[in-house]
Amino acid sequence: MLIEIICTGDEVLTGKIVNSNFSCISQKLEDFGLTVRWGTTVGDDRETLLNAFREAGERADAVIVNGGLGPTIDDLSQEIAAKAAGLELRLNEDWLARMEEFFRRRARVMPPNNRKQAMLPEGAEVLDNPVGTACGFALDIGRARFFFTPGVPRELRRMLEEEIVPRLLSLSGTQAAIHLKRFHSYGLGESHVDALLAGLEDLVPGGGVKLGFRAHYPQLETKITVRGCDLHEVQQKLAPVQEEVRKRLGNFILAEDDNTLEGVVLKALAVERSTLAVVETFTAGHIASRLVHLPGAEAVFKRGIVSRDLAQIRSAVGLDGRNLNGEVSCEAAETVAEAARKATAASHALAVLVELDEGADRIDLGGTICLAVASPDEVVSRRARMLGGRDWVRLGAAELGLDCLRRYLQGLPVVERIDFERT
Amino acid sequence: MLIEIICTGDEVLTGKIVNSNFSCISQKLEDFGLTVRWGTTVGDDRETLLNAFREAGERADAVIVNGGLGPTIDDLSQEIAAKAAGLELRLNEDWLARMEEFFRRRARVMPPNNRKQAMLPEGAEVLDNPVGTACGFALDIGRARFFFTPGVPRELRRMLEEEIVPRLLSLSGTQAAIHLKRFHSYGLGESHVDALLAGLEDLVPGGGVKLGFRAHYPQLETKITVRGCDLHEVQQKLAPVQEEVRKRLGNFILAEDDNTLEGVVLKALAVERSTLAVVETFTAGHIASRLVHLPGAEAVFKRGIVSRDLAQIRSAVGLDGRNLNGEVSCEAAETVAEAARKATAASHALAVLVELDEGADRIDLGGTICLAVASPDEVVSRRARMLGGRDWVRLGAAELGLDCLRRYLQGLPVVERIDFERT
After folding, report:
1. Which residues of B touch A344 (CB under 8 A)?
2. Which of A2, A23, A31 should we substitute to test contact with B (largest number of B Cβ atoms within 10 Å)?
3. Does the beta-carbon distance from B284 to A284 stay under 8 Å?
4. Is A19 on the interface with B (CB under 8 A)?
5. Count of structural domains, chain B
């Protein structure tokens, strides 16, 4: 099935906003085994919109149009859709009532220009939008089925999942049940994970398992799409595959599905009623900033200390008398972590010390990371050297620190070589 | 002049990466008064690439193609460009020598597959790439001039500015000299700034001044594009306009052009040989993380302290004996800032305390921010209330804290009402 995406709006066309809706749509379809063939971006202009709709209607089987469903005069999608399909616009009374109810529940009166959002090409199929006033709809233009979606990302995502993907799967004759399983890892590069998971798709004799990746440094997302004729079959196919992924990627899996590294760490501490102190240097508060604002963090996170100056760190954790030799070492990290734990009365402490190379920022600029995790029972530490410039080292050090804490809390080895370190 | 953009690559088409190159190109052209009319996104596929080139070549006057100039077999831009233009590919000896030199200077031998990057359609005009091995080029396809650019953002940006914009301006017959002046502000919404700057474009009798905005919460960027027949005329037109912007936006301008708020703060401290301590609660290390990793920060930033727990903050700044009443107030912020200054031996301290509303995250969830700046001479404080959900409040509080410090260091009033606060 040939699928196209048309993104509309002057703000997108002029680059005022980065078009993340395109990748959102495209990724969501990929997750369900549907592939986008062509993308078009046009502004809020009648002539170009009409041309874009007509050209896509000649090329594609299905077209997803994003944007232009709002109440203002530059929102043109319904009008041009009707024109391209040779239909009249008609007031959809049901949607009008829905909108009036939407405003009533927020103790507001619907402004008159919102009425425009209930004007749909006659005969168009309504695509529900439970979280906004923009009414999605579907109709045929040329040889293609067109699906019109709102520009607000939250509304788009929901309509895609609940209204559009099922219709596309049905149009394409694809098997009905599908599930996307996601694993998040840190420390293994994409090609390494790809090699580790070789043959995974063949574990299920009948097929229907597809492997994909999305790298967003420092983390890698491994995606397993499983298709079957019903949910039961999907679960049966998924079970051995996900066990195998867990076995092969092992300690490197930091979270699954919608979970995050910081969420996993926070939860592991919370369930044991543990508390945490964090000491950072060049990571600059990046570790703290991923944890501290999360709901529930106020009960777990005791204190974060940030400084590039070891003398300041020493003073902040009550080590004024101690000499840390002024240099970053595992011993220094251990001393700092243990002292931070005591100074803040936290049960656990993480200290991440970074010695950045001298000189201007460049692609091979590196840093030496010494980190330690202190608990009531012991102090463990790890050293790593990373290259890749200031930002790369900073992000890598923050991730390594959080991930080593995750490993410690889960009883896994804190020291395990990762692909991003150099010796 | 009708300009189109074609973005190529499976990673972009499948949404694996968000296509920020499109907005980068489009914005850059807008900055020079050039408007993009149509965008196309296609994958690494010969047939669709050829169709995309041919269709754009029939519609447009100029087309910028991004991506597909790399050394691997899925990089197809030169091949398909030659086919669409009816030309042969020829080895460009000059570019080959450039690449060999590129590798030699990095003490590496050029891999054989890089040779492909020097194969250009015969007669194509070379567009220089001083920072990479992908050779840009220009040629005619259909009725349009095509400009082929690399997918690496850093290489793209440089080629756009130095090679492509001048050629487009010349093609479009636009006046030769152009300058983009940028002002960054915090605290005034886009429509407010738009109103404050009403009539600005008319200050210059002959015209050639264009006003634009780019909002990225919490900051707003105000862009002034000035055109003239030469640089002297541009400077003459710009002078009264930029003075007027500075007058009308006044204290709200936090930086100009490539400068940033954190950079301005760091520099203001560094020139006075001042040093800084920062105490944060719900902003979670976000303020520290914007300052601490910057070059030069190691000499200025003494210590950052992060905790959601006022008792921990008290202990961290040596106020164990003092009762802060357990609540967020300007008095508490002042006490904490002054104590942090002393505890860290910093000349200045910023304390940003946030009391977040109770309950689940929602669009009207708010926070009360009390912040203080302490210096050797005095302590000043400011209170603000913001709504908009957890993330909105967190970002707003961090920005307000840094901006109040900027105001203090520049001798401006720290308390001045902003559009984002509610009473």
Report:
1. 312, 315-316
2. A23
3. no
4. yes
5. 3
Q: Are residues B63 and B15 in the same domain?
A: yes
How do residues B123-182 score in pLDDT, each as one tens digit?
999 999 998 899 999 999 999 999 999 999 999 999 999 999 999 999 988 756 788 899
The two tokens of residue B193 are: 């700034």
Domain stops at, among A200, A232, A256:
A256
- What's the pLDDT tens digit per position in B246-288? 999 999 999 999 999 999 999 999 999 999 999 999 999 999 9
The band of B13, judged by pLDDT with boundaries at 50, 70 and 90, is very high
Mean per-residue pLDDT, A321-329: 73
Do B13 and A30 lie within an 8 Å CB cutoff?
Answer: no
**CA closest to B33 among chain A residues:** A14
Domain that holds residue A225: 177-256
Please tell me the predicted confidence (pLDDT) of residue A175. Answer: 59
Write down which residue in A142, A172, A202 finishes a domain. Answer: A172
The model's pLDDT over A96-132, given as tens digits with 9 standing for 90+, comes to 999 999 888 877 888 888 999 999 999 999 999 998 8
B214 interaction partners in chain A (CB closer than 8 Å): 16
- A312–chain B Cβ distance below 8 A for any pair: yes
